[in-house]
Amino acid sequence: MADREWIFQDRTIEAAIARAAVELGRRPEELEVQVLVQNEQDELVTIKVKLPEGKTELDEHQLAELVESVLEEKTQDGTVAISNGQVVIRVPVKGGRYPSITPGPETRVMINGQLIQKETMVSPRDRVVVSAEDRPPVRLAEVQLTPDKLEAYLAITYASGAKMKIPDQPPQTRLTVRAEAVQILEPVPFTTTELVNILKEHGVVYGVDIQAVEQARLNGGRYLVARGRPMVPGEAGKIEYYFLDETQQARLDEMEEEQRINFYEHRTIPSVEAGEILARKYPARPGRPGMTVTGEMIPVPEYKEPQLLVKQGATLMEDGQVAVAVTAGRPILKNSVISVLPIYTVQGDVNLASGNVRFDGHVVVWGNVMDGASVIAGGDVEIHGNVTQGSVQARGNITVHKNVVGATLVAGGMDAINSEIIYRLREINGELESLLLAVVQLKQHPAFGSEDLARYGLGRLLRILLDQKFATLPKLILQIVQMLQNQSPSDSLNEIIRLVARKFVGLGVLEVADELEIQEAILRLEKEIIDLEATINSASDIKLAYAHNSKLEASGKIVFTGQGAYMCQVSAGGDVLAEKKDSIYRGGRLIVTGNAVLNELGSPMATPTTVEFVFGRRILVNRVYPGVSFRVGRQLVKVQEVLRDVRVAVDEQGILRVDYLYKEHLQ
Question: Looking at the structure, do residues 643 and 589 belong to the same domain, yes or no?
Answer without folding.
Answer: yes
